Amino acid sequence: MNLTVAGALAFWAAAWLLNERLVRLDARTEHARRAVALLVPAVFGITLLVVWEGLVRGLGVPTVLLPPPSMIWERLVNSLPTLWADFQQTFLKAVLIGYALGCGSGFLAAIAVDRSPFLKRGLLPLGNFVSALPIIGIAPIMVMWFGFDWPSKAAVVVVMTFFPMLVNTVEGLAASSAIDRDLMRTYAASYWQTLLKLRLPAAAPFIFNALKINSTLALIGAIVAEFFGTPIVGMGFRISTEVGRMNIDMVWAEIAIAALAGSLFYGLVALIERAVTFWHPSIRGG
């Protein structure tokens, strides 16, 4: 075992002991608890990168198989204009537009399903069927229908995000208790008054659960859809092209950008959820 590998393993052991101490730390204030909650994953992530770097360099792993993090970082810094153009094409256009259309239409469809027993019996089983369709089957069809630019990728995102929002919202609308609904009827509340003041607030955790699920599905769907036809820009296009050129460091740079964007998007939705559903026990107990 060479010194590089030994150093990486020693760093891993030290970081492991540090994290063990941190998770057992009795933080007495809220700020201290938040600091520990942030520090533990940060130490764990840094440890993974250091061990990755040490093992790849120490064992002489070919860069076409797995480049070290330092090489990926260098490529990322030197390719910022290309990465930004890809990010704009994939995330700012296909993902955000498809996400908004898919989640919005799924929410409206759930309201219609809630009003119609026929739609509930007919559309929900169809939703489960469509949700099981593979992306690689949908993406080529959308490319033929909407062309090679970002609208076809947004269409894939719409299909992927529509039914999770539909199913979760319908389940959430049924979450209010019978006692609460009876109470609204004693007040002579209309359907829409009951919906706005009782059932939608009760469904909010379900709706945000769908929004968080779709925040990751949307990015995956857009990237995979770009494998099947796209202009010479986009995260999926770059990944498939650079794999063919054996530029694996560029592939990992795109993966890092996608992971960061997806994590921030998910975190933003989670923060909005905490602000909107602050009254819910799952939030008040957090």
UniProtKB/TrEMBL annotation:
Keywords: Cell membrane, Membrane, Transmembrane, Transmembrane helix, Transport. Coiled coil: none annotated. The keyword Transmembrane applies. Its main location: membrane. GO terms for cellular component: plasma membrane. Residues 106-276 form the ABC transmembrane type-1 domain. It is found in: Cell membrane. It is a multi-pass membrane protein. GO terms for biological process: transmembrane transport. The chain crosses the membrane at residues 6-23, 35-52, 91-113, 125-148, 154-179, 217-239, 251-272. It holds the Pfam family BPD_transp_1. InterPro entries: MetI-like, MetI-like_sf. This is Binding-protein-dependent transport systems inner membrane component. It comes from Chelativorans sp. (strain BNC1).
